[in-house]
């Protein structure tokens, strides 16, 4: 009879764990191919959903490539690495997507960006509605709705926990 108690405890904590995991994803840039010249980053990025709180991980051989964050779409298009916001070169670089908007990354190795080693990441506010791609560069979108999906996740998590506790207490009379 002790088994039931253990099973319900494991089940309810598992659901909470899964709920927490789903709220922030980690995206390995380029998928299994990683941050490499041969990877098709535009098709990789279009298949992904980037939310506030998610992380990007750039995986590559340190020394061969690097990661440079660019400040504008025009710098991204022309591979102008001179106006970079940030640069990383460990080979396992983690970038946190802290707010909605578009971010631009390119490889800092000479010639690589021109060969397509660059990626544009559009971070969504976290709500279900898709944000229309606006040509203006001004970031006027508010971050007020950024925590809505996290809130839903925690509600789902606590409801699952409640269900677990409830079924546990229902079983209690038989157990003791
Ligand atoms: Cu490179």
From TrEMBL:
Keywords: Copper, Electron transport, Glycoprotein, Metal-binding, Signal, Transport. One of its GO terms (molecular function) is electron transfer activity. GO terms for cellular component: plasma membrane. Residues 25-125 form the Phytocyanin domain. Residues 1-24 form the signal peptide. It comes from the Eukaryota. Residues 126-147 are annotated as: Disordered. InterPro entries: Cupredoxin, Phytocyanin-like, Phytocyanin_dom. The keyword Membrane does not apply. This is Phytocyanin domain-containing protein. It comes from Linum trigynum. The lineage of its organism: Eukaryota, Viridiplantae, Streptophyta, Embryophyta, Tracheophyta.
